[in-house]
Design brief:
binds zinc ion, binds 6-O-phosphono-alpha-D-glucopyranose, alpha/beta, 18 helices, 26% strand, 543 residues, Alpha-D-Glucose-1,6-Bisphosphate, Chain A, domain 3, TATA-Binding Protein, 3 domains, single chain
Length: 543
Amino acid sequence: MKIDVVSTVPFEDQKPGTSGLRKKTRVFMQPGYLENFVQATFNAVGGARGKTLVVGGDGRYFNADAIQTIIKMAAANGATKVIVGAGGLLSTPAASHLIRLNKADGGLILSASHNPGGVDEDFGIKFNTANGGPAPEAITNAIFDQTLTLCEYSIADAANVDLSTIGRQQMGAMSIEIVDPVSDYQSLMESLFDFAKIRDLFASGFTMKFDAMHAVTGPYAKAILEDALNAPKGTVLNGVPKEDFDNGHPDPNPVWAKDLMDMMMSDEGPDFGAASDGDGDRNMIVGRNIYVTPSDSLAVLANNAHLAPGYKDGISGVARSMPTSGAGDRVAAKLGVECFETPTGWKFFGNLLDAGKVTICGEESAGTGSDHVREKDGLWAVLLWLNILAERKQSVAEVLKDHWQQFGRDYYSRHDYEALPIEAASSLIAKLRSFLPDLAGRTFGFEEVTRADEFSYLDPVDGSMSENQGIRVFFKSGGRAVFRLSGTGTEGATLRLYLEQFVSRDGNHSQDTQEALKQVRNAALELCELETLTGRTKPDVVT
Ligand code: G6P
Ligand code: ZN
């Protein structure tokens, strides 16, 4: 096998964000751009020599080309083996599972998650470590340092690999194993959930729609829901993965999964609705006439996990990202287990899961998961909900209402202001930061501030510190507003305003969410001077 050592010059913009490196697809298609990042990743982890790597992606435009490049670079860098999902497909949770199952040294996952795909849309790559989880900041920083000084990369001068045929191939001394993307993941799900009980649920006439959004979970959902659990054919919608997600935006929220939402918000709608994103790690859960916020979903799953065989002995703890509502905290308190508050980004859960401190984690950004892998897992959340519904023999609405009666309700919504000029967004945050010392005791509209700070996180496992993770303002009413800039966007800056209002057990649990949040929202907007600084009067997305 001939190896080319190619001279290159650094790209200055390869700093990984919340979830790996994400850019416009054309940026990745520039000569050397992907190659530099892959070589920098290998260099940052002590080289690829002798290592086994899992490689796969969500099937978006440029996925297959990128995988060919990565395989050739792994071979040239001396890797022993690469395990690749057939067709180049692997959902993010399935990739995490394959890394763990095969005791691989890590993996490269190609995806821009819930961002649209296509030559003019987004692409991304991230490195996962041997525990199956996204690389922690120490490694992503080391990768970034490498990208700034890189002067050459190595690539095998070899023919493209046949990605469609399951089985072994060879590239020089490196073996390439093309695997079915679904089967190992499906076995894992069968080990956690009571498939017979869920089968009975479907046999009793329970109806469901799962919107795969033309993204990677289509084949997983069909195999598990329709083939293994006997849900009627047609339960999975948009189940064929497409390079551009059929010109869609594969983000499972009420805005981008509107067709499913419309179907569910009707007395004749299915009993249960769900959707997942581009790479299958996010989920949306909907009942007939009721939307379950991701923060509530985390709380309900934590409180009921023991009903599924995989969690029958209970959970060791709960973790949530800081902007996620406090609903999960209340469940942890009742269960007598610890609740951890981490910065946004699944990578912060990895240490807690590895140390056995938590079993279930979740984020407001439609992510829930457990210690079965080291990524959030869309279909896992759907199956746990199904298992719970099958055991409790209640509707989604009944489960939620019971939950609020027991714990109180955290009304919750996120307002996104997208594609802001970076300077305007940064100065908004800088101004807020400068207000912080004097906020307590001041009143904005009807809301009095009790405390305000900028969130930082001391990892209790490895002692690392992450600062500037979002500004939190707590109000006397039990409300909270959080201001944070997104770390996953590819255009300008996105300001996320997270709004929360707690209403106690005996309060009114049937208000309209935006209505319940009105006072907190008005106070937050007055405080951050959004309109003056950005000219924006309305959010682009409300979840
Ligand atoms: C990805 C990450 C999540 C994160 C989300 C939003 O999905 O895996 O952990 O919560 O992005 O991040 P952002 O920085 O855009 O708010
Ligand atoms: Zn995703």
